[in-house]
Amino acid sequence: MNYNKLKVFRQERGISISELARRSGLSRVTVSNVENRKSNPTQKTISAICDVLEKNPYDIFFDINVNHELQKKFFIERDS
User: Fold this and answer.
1) Contact between 45 and 34 (Cβ < 8 Å)
2) Neighbour tally for 1: CB within 10 Å
3) pTM score, two decimals?
4) Residue 61 and residue 29 in contact, taking contact as beta carbons nearer than 8 Å
5) Digit-coded pLDDT (tens) for 5-48
6) What is the model's pLDDT at position 75?
7) CB 60 within 8 Å of CB 15
8) Which residues touch 18 (CB under 8 Å, ≥6 apart)?
């Protein structure tokens, strides 16, 4: 997972960690820990952050060379 993109996309939108936390329904500590690689996000956390930033999870959290089968698996589980 590539969390550095989370900070980039958040800052591009002019959203603070606190604001991202508020909009996503997550705690500020959770968002900060994910962004700073102190914890691994759950699918629910990934989904909440992506909804606020209007980005695909793979744009934010995964390297470009992600296996397409892994992408399909994530989206099937996420939408279930």
Assistant:
1) yes
2) 15
3) 0.74
4) no
5) 899 999 999 999 999 999 999 999 999 999 998 998 999 999 99
6) 56
7) no
8) 28
